[in-house]
Amino acid sequence: MNLYPPETAPDAAPVPTGKRVLLAAPRGYCAGVDRAVIAVEKALDLHGAPIYVRKEIVHNKYVVETLTERGAIFVSETDDVPEGARVVFSAHGVSPAVVEAAEARSLVTIDATCPLVTKVHKEAVRFADEDYDILLIGHEGHEEVEGTAGEAPEHIQVVNSPEDVDSVTVRDPDKVVWISQTTLSVDETMETVRRLRERFPTLQDPPSDDICYATQNRQVAVKKLAPACDLVIVVGSTNSSNSVRLVEVALDAGARASYLIDYAKEMDEAWLDGVSTVGVTSGASVPEILVDDVLKFLAQRGYSDVQEVRTATEDLMFSLPKELRADLKQAGVEAARPKRAGRTTLAVEVL
């Protein structure tokens, strides 16, 4: 499976001079995150507070804090939601057992699961119906993995990393398929698949890439700029799988150092000692305002030359959850999704 189009494969870069910032593009919000956050905002606008949300709507501290201020209440399980109340399922998806638990409490649900995660759920159901052993590459305990595994628990086993491959057991080595969490490192996932295929030569691939387009695009952009950077700053929360992966990708691609931060105030000026070029990117659940704050912090310290490094252009949009669209239609409210403000910079080849 060729996950890197030739035109976006990372290249070597010359050693830079002077202080500058290489700003990765694409970065920040993906279509699934945008849809989920807007779903909570629209629900609050239409129905008023409180709106309950199972787990974090997306894995970003700022987003959760901002929605909490507006009246969203984040809970661990549906049992924490008052009977008959309205609850939003997060972008990471839920298992059928969670849906059943919500129905048992007469909860009014809004399913904000990312459509790309829903695609993986459907793959799991299909392969289980065909009696395959399904190897789910992902991080055990992550909400997305729990939701996917819950679709067919008797057929699915989680493979956390390449090192776990040797402990995998299956009923029939000729009837095995792999699927994956959508926010993984592309390189590590492919290494896991390679090792699995050494053990199970007839291992089947999913019908299409499970790692989402946004995760891949952000990793490709970081691979492009990292070799030219003394330091790469990744804006994102520690529980955000795709953000954590960006730090790993930056270091593997040649950055001398890389740090994950939620806010610009977490920046340590000592990180900038001897640094000429700083790379900046953000995870798929990070609003652009947080990147802007990092750029302001850097500009105040002499890094005012910001050059965007673009490896792809994203224009994918998802419609709002069907339950919310129905509510908006009944209320006579326009269901169009607002366009979010982004940073406009010149996209030039600067490496």
What does this structure look like?
There is one protein chain. A five-stranded parallel beta sheet has the order 10-9-11-1-12, sandwiched between helices. Strands 3-2-4-5 form a four-stranded parallel beta sheet. A three-stranded parallel beta sheet has the order 7-6-8, with helices on both faces. The protein has ten helices and twelve strands. The chain starts with 19 loop residues before the first strand and ends in a 21-residue tail after the last helix. The chain is flat, with a radius of gyration of 21 Å. The model is unreliable at 1-17 and 338-351 (pLDDT under 50). The chain has 351 residues and is of the alpha/beta class. Helix 4 packs parallel to helix 5 (143-149) and helix 7 runs parallel beside helix 8 (241-252). The chain folds into three domains: 20-29 and 213-310, Cobalt-precorrin-4 Transmethylase, domain 1; 31-114 and 316-331, 3-Layer(aba) Sandwich (Rossmann fold); 116-199, Cobalt-precorrin-4 Transmethylase, domain 1 (3-Layer(aba) Sandwich). It has helices at 31-47, 61-70, 96-104, 115-129, 143-149, 186-199, 213-225, 241-252, 288-299, 322-330, and strands at residues 20-25, 51-54, 72-75, 86-89, 108-111, 133-137, 156-159, 176-180, 231-235, 257-261, 277-282, 306-310.
Overall outline: flat
Q: Cα-atom Rg, whole angstroms?
A: 21 Å
What is the CATH topology assignment of the largest domain?
Cobalt-precorrin-4 Transmethylase, domain 1
- Please estimate the helix content: 25-40%
> What is the chains' assembly state?
single chain
Distance between the termini: 28 Å
What is the average per-residue confidence, as pLDDT, rounded to a whole number? 92
Elements, N to C (H/E)? EHEHEEHEHEHEEHHEHEEHEH
